[in-house]
Each structure stands twice: as structure tokens, then as C-alpha cells.
Design a protein that fits this description.
By secondary structure, chain A is mainly alpha-helical. Chain A contains 5 helices and 2 strands, in the order H-H-H-E-E-H-H. In chain A, about 75% of the residues lie in helices and about 10% in strands. The two termini of chain A are about 50 Å apart. In chain B, helix 8 crosses helix 9. Classes of the chains: A mainly alpha, B mainly alpha. Chain B: V-ATPase is a heteromultimeric enzyme made up of two complexes: the ATP-hydrolytic V1 complex and the proton translocation V0 complex.
Chain lengths: ~270, ~350
């Protein structure tokens, strides 16, 4: 998993580590917020689904009654009145108003139906016969259209919510499965790089101090050796006093040379 | 005596109509129809009566297509009768078509008023109300031209001339125009029946009764349907035919009626109508004309009127030597088409509980 996710191309520095840490924190907060939003929307979505189911069943019943009342009209009038109705209707009696509802930041359109009471365009249709059936048929159909409007607003909300929920879930998943692991990976990488650097540094220091110790030990040994030689020479000089000054003179620049060398090394 | 020479001119037509009458669906047929599960079954059941006309229908036709084909048969038979009739019988048959012509012309007026292409409307016209010069009316582009061509070209000129001007066509609601025309037509028909020497005797008897009933029915319906609309009382009164059993006192009371009770009071002088109103019940309020929210037996005022009309039409066949049988047969046939449409509609929409709501007389 972590191999597939990869990491961000950053230099493993302490600064970017800080950046990454704050990013991870942000991502976690965003994730929990989005998750909550998605849950709220899903709740709403389920409710709407349930209401759509109810509305659809209601629509089935109402449309059946409406179609039947049309059959009654054609029985009573004994002919087709469609054309006449179409021509005499001039103004809409049944109207629809659109509103907006805000559900966790998503704007859902809502349609609201109302009837314009004053409008009665074909009130006289079927005056000779069947007029009452026609009026009742109109009422039935008005109810049917009301159900349809309700259903329409639910369906629109359904589609929009569906889309939004998909987007939100995609974001949640992206944060959960890509951004957070990737940031974590980066942090891990930076940490490991920094550790590596630390270790290198430590090793180097160790090496240097080891070398130092070795040098010190050598120097000590040489000093010791020199002292021993000197002591031996002294002892020699004590015995053959004449030879001693010459060796002392040859020995002395050599020691100095040695000391100069060590000085250079240090 | 009046029957002595009847058969010379109209005997064949009457015979044919009596034959047609026998092909009307009976109660047995209807109970078979109500048992059907699909429209195809209905079609099959109608086979013996309608034969060729339904053959062209596709499987599971729509109810309107079915009704259309049935109407085609009615039209074909009626055309045959018109072709066979002469003299006063031919005139009588022509009168029968005037009612459909009024509907057709009202359709064309509506089309012209809304500046539609009236040629498209021709196919929507009822074939029985078709006359040769009907397409000429489509030439008219504005309402005044239409008015003039109606006056010149149609047999309905008299009905227009006496009560409507071309401004009226523009201003009045088309339904008022239609009902005015229909009122004039009914009055003219009534007059024709009662004054024509050939029709004294049985024709006059039965047709007067039927037309009076028709006039009363229209008056009552117009009154009931005008409640709650902008139709004023004086205007309403103008639409009542000026004859009938309710005329004049009943009509006057109807014109003053403000609610269903007023109508019931106006018609209470006549035993038949009173019994209708009693049967339907006064307390239904606006639901009087309907079958929807009606009482348990499902009969509405409109149904009762249809029922009465059918009974009267049935009785006409007990009389001989009269072209009134043609009228009766047409009404019965139309009711039959409505019945079948209703039944197939019930079957198509799966609303079997109300399937028995038709009127069968035989």
C-alpha cells in the first residue's frame, strides 16, 4: 500500500517535516468533517428515497383514478373534448414555484405547486352534457399533477444529492486512502532520512573521536618511548659520559621533528 | 290511414332499421363483455355484431380506436339509410345530422378563433355531421369570413342568422354559441315534426315526446353545469329550448335556480324528473352529474337521463310507419358505443368494480 501511494517530492529537512505534519493534521480534520457531511447527506438521501417510493406509489394510484375519471368524461360527453379543452385554456390555473433548500451546503431545488383560483378557462365546457364530469376530472388531474410536482422535486433532489454524495465520498476516500497515507509516508521518509543523517553524523563523530584517541594513544606511546630513550640515554651517559652529548644532540632534533608532525596532524 | 302510403317511400328504410335494431347488443352480450379480461376478448365478443369493421384493428387496440371503428359502422349504416330514403324521410334523416354539424362547426369556430390550420380539424369532425361544403369553411381565415361562409354554405344558416352575429362568435364563449345553435336546432326540429303533414300520427307522437325530453334534459344540464361559472342567469335562460315539458313555468324556475335544490324544485312539477332527482338525492351538492362520488348504486342524474332516453328509444320500435325508428336506432347505437367504450375502458384500466355502470335496454 504505502509503496503504491508514494511520497511527496520534498527535501528531507526539518522545515518540510513541520509542513508535512501540519498538512497531515489538516487532512485528518478535513476527513472527519467531510465524513460527517457525507453521513448527513446520506441520511437525507435515504429519507428522500423513502419519500420517492411513497410518492411513486401515490402517483400510481392517483394517475389511475385520473385516467378513469377521463374515461367517465368520455362516457358522459360521448366524444372527444381534448381539442376544445386545449384551445380554450389560456392561462395556467395550476402553477409551480421553485424554492431552494440548503442541506449541509448543498442547494436542493424544491417545487411547490399552487392553484390560481381566479383562472377557470374551460368552465363552460360540456355545458350541454357532462360538464360536471369534466370539472371533476379536472380536479382529479390537478391532484395528479400535484403528486407529479412533488415527485419531480424529490427526484431532482435525489439526483443532485446523489451527485454530491459521490463527490463527497470521493473526497473522503481520497483523503483517507491517498492524501493521509502519502503524507504519513513522507513524514516517515523525512524522519528516516533525518535519522540516517543523525546516524551518519554520529558515526563520523565516532570515527573522528576514535582517530583522535588513536592519535593520542600513539602520541602518548611516543612520548613514553622518548622518555624511555631519554632515560636510557641518561643511564648510558651516566656510564660513558663522553658519548652522551653527541647522541643527545642527534636525538633532540628528531624528537622535535616528531612533535612538529603530530602538531600538523592535530 | 296515415300508414297507408308510408311503405311506398319509407318502408324499405324502416325495414332495414328494424334489422339493424336486432343486431344491437343484448343484456346477454353485455354480460359476456363484462367477463372479458383483455380488449382482444372484447373485440372477439363484438365479432358477430361488428364483423368486418373490427377486423382491421391491431391486436389489443386502444379503446378510442375501438370506439372509432364502431362509430364507423354506425356511420356506414346511416349513410346507407340516407341513400335509400326519399322525400320527407330524407329530410328527417338530414335533421338528425344537424346536431353533429353543430359540433363540427363549433370545432371549426374554435380553430379559427385561435388561428389554427382548420384543415387539420376536418379529420376530427364527426363523420355524421359531414356535409359537402364543410371543407369550404376552412378557407375562412377570420371569424367574419367564417360567419359569412357558414351562412352561405351550411344547412345551419337559419340557426345562426336568427340569434348570432359574427361579433357574437368572437366574443361569446364557444360553448354558449354551441348551445344556442343546439337550442335553435331543437326548436326547429320540433317545429318540423309538428308541422310537416307527412309526420302527423305516430312520428309526431313519439318524436315530440323524445324532443321534449331532450329539451328538458338540456335545460336541466345547462343549469346544473353553469353553477359556479361566469354564465349569468339571463344568458342561461337564452339557452333553454322554448318547448318541452318544463316550458314555460319550469324553464323560468330553472333560470332562477341558484343551486341543485332550486333545480329540483323547478322540475318537481314533472313526475319523471322529480323521481330522478329523488333517486340521486339532493344532498350530493356538486356531485350530482357524476358517477365518481355517487351513491352506492352508482347512478347519477346523467345516467338516469340516458336510461330514460334509451327506454323511450326502445318504445319507438313499438310504433310502425314512422322514420322515428331511425332516430331511436341511432341513439341506441350511440349508447351502445358508449357502453362498449366504458366496458373496455374499465377492462383496460383494471377497474372492474364499476364495469356494470352501463345502460343496457334489450
Amino acid at each position: 500500500m504505502s509503496g503504491a501511494v508514494g511520497r511527496e517530492p520534498v527535501f528531507p529537512t526539518r522545515q518540510s517535516l513541520g509542513l508535512m505534519k501540519s498538512k497531515l493534521k489538516g487532512a485528518e480534520i478535513g476527513h472527519s468533517l467531510l465524513k460527517r457531511k457525507s453521513e448527513a447527506l446520506t441520511k437525507r438521501f435515504r429519507e428522500i428515497t423513502r419519500r420517492i417510493d411513497e410518492a411513486k406509489q401515490k402517483m400510481g394510484r392517483v394517475m389511475q383514478i385520473a385516467a378513469f375519471s377521463l374515461a367517465e368524461v368520455s362516457y358522459a360527453v360521448g366524444g372527444d373534448i381534448g381539442y376544445q379543452i386545449q384551445e380554450s385554456a389560456k392561462q395556467a390555473r395550476f402553477r409551480v414555484r421553485a424554492k431552494q433548500e440548503n442541506v449541509s451546503g448543498v442547494f436542493l431545488p424544491q417545487f411547490e405547486s399552487y392553484t390560481e383560483e381566479g383562472v377557470n378557462d374551460f368552465g363552460l365546457t360540456g355545458l350541454g352534457k357532462g360538464g360536471q364530469q369534466i370539472q371533476r376530472c379536472r380536479e382529479t388531474y390537478a391532484r395528479a399533477v400535484e403528486t407529479l410536482v412533488e415527485l419531480a422535486s424529490l427526484q431532482t433532489a435525489f439526483l443532485i444529492l446523489d451527485e454530491v454524495i459521490k463527490v463527497v465520498n470521493r473526497r473522503v476516500n481520497a483523503i483517507e486512502h491517498v492524501i493521509i497515507p502519502r503524507t504519513e509516508n513522507t513524514i516517515k521518509y523525512i524522519n528516516s532520512e533525518l535519522d540516517e543523517l543523525d546516524r551518519e553524523e554520529f558515526y563520523r563523530l565516532k570515527k573522528v573521536s576514535g582517530k583522535k584517541q588513536r592519535d593520542v594513544a600513539q602520541a602518548d606511546a611516543e612520548i613514553l618511548a622518548a622518555r624511555q630513550k631519554a632515560a636510557e640515554k641518561e643511564a648510558e651517559n651516566d656510564a660513558p659520559a663522553t658519548a652522551a652529548p653527541s647522541t643527545e644532540e642527534t636525538e633532540a632534533p628528531d624528537v622535535l621533528g616528531e612533535q612538529e608532525d603530530t602538531d600538523v596532524i592535530f | 290511414m296515415e300508414g297507408l302510403f308510408f311503405n311506398v317511400n319509407a318502408g324499405y328504410v324502416e325495414g332495414i332499421v328494424r334489422g339493424y335494431r336486432n343486431s344491437l347488443l343484448t343484456g346477454q352480450n353485455y354480460s359476456n363483455l363484462t367477463q372479458c379480461e383483455t380488449i382482444d376478448d372484447v373485440k372477439l365478443q363484438l365479432g358477430p355484431a361488428y364483423g368486418d369493421f373490427l377486423a382491421a384493428l391491431p391486436p389489443n387496440p386502444s379503446t378510442s380506436a375501438l370506439a372509432g371503428k364502431m362509430t364507423d359502422k354506425l356511420v356506414a349504416e346511416f349513410r346507407y339509410l340516407t341513400a335509400q330514403s326519399t322525400g320527407s324521410t330524407a329530410k328527417f334523416l338530414e335533421y338528425l345530422t344537424y346536431g353533429y354539424m353543430i359540433d363540427n362547426i363549433a370545432l371549426l369556430i374554435t380553430g379559427t378563433l385561435h388561428e389554427r390550420d382548420t384543415r387539420e380539424l376536418l379529420e376530427r369532425c364527426h363523420p355524421l355531421g359531414w356535409f359537402e361544403t364543410l371543407p369550404v369553411l376552412c378557407v375562412a381565415t377570420n371569424i367574419e369570413e367564417l360567419y359569412n361562409s357558414v351562412l352561405i354554405e351550411t344547412p345551419l344558416a337559419a340557426y345562426f342568422k336568427s340569434s348570432l352575429s359574427h361579433q357574437d362568435l368572437d366574443e361569446l364563449n364557444i360553448e354558449i354559441v354551441r348551445n344556442t345553435l343546439f337550442k335553435n336546432y331543437l326548436e326547429d326540429f320540433y317545429n318540423f315534426i309538428n308541422t310537416h303533414p307527412d309526420f302527423s300520427g305516430p312520428t309526431q307522437d313519439v318524436m315530440s315526446e323524445i324532443l321534449q325530453f331532450e329539451a328538458d334534459r338540456r335545460s336541466i344540464n345547462i343549469t346544473l353545469n353553469s353553477f359556479g361559472t361566469e354564465l349569468s342567469k339571463p344568458e342561461r335562460r337564452k339557452l333553454y329550448p322554448e318547448f318541452g315539458k318544463l316550458y314555460p313555468e319550469g324553464s323560468l324556475m330553472l333560470s332562477r335556480a341558484e343551486d341543485v335544490e332550486g333545480v329540483a324544485l323547478a322540475v318537481s312539477a314533472n313526475a319523471d324528473y322529480k323521481s330522478f332527482f329523488d333517486a340521486v338525492g339532493l344532498n350530493q351538492g356538486g356531485g350530482l352529474g357524476g358517477m365518481g362520488g355517487g351513491p352506492a348504486d352508482g347512478k347519477s342524474l346523467e345516467d338516469l337521463f340516458y336510461q330514460k332516453e334509451m327506454e323511450m328509444s326502445k318504445l319507438v320500435f313499438t310504433r310502425q310507419f314512422t322514420p322515428a325508428v331511425v332516430y331511436a336506432w341511432m341513439k341506441l347505437k350511440e349508447q351502445e358505443i358508449r357502453n362498449v367504450t366504458w366496458i373496455s375502458e374499465c377492462i383496460a384500466q383494471n377497474q372492474k368494480e364499476r364495469i356494470g355502470n352501463f345502460i343496457s335496454v334489450f
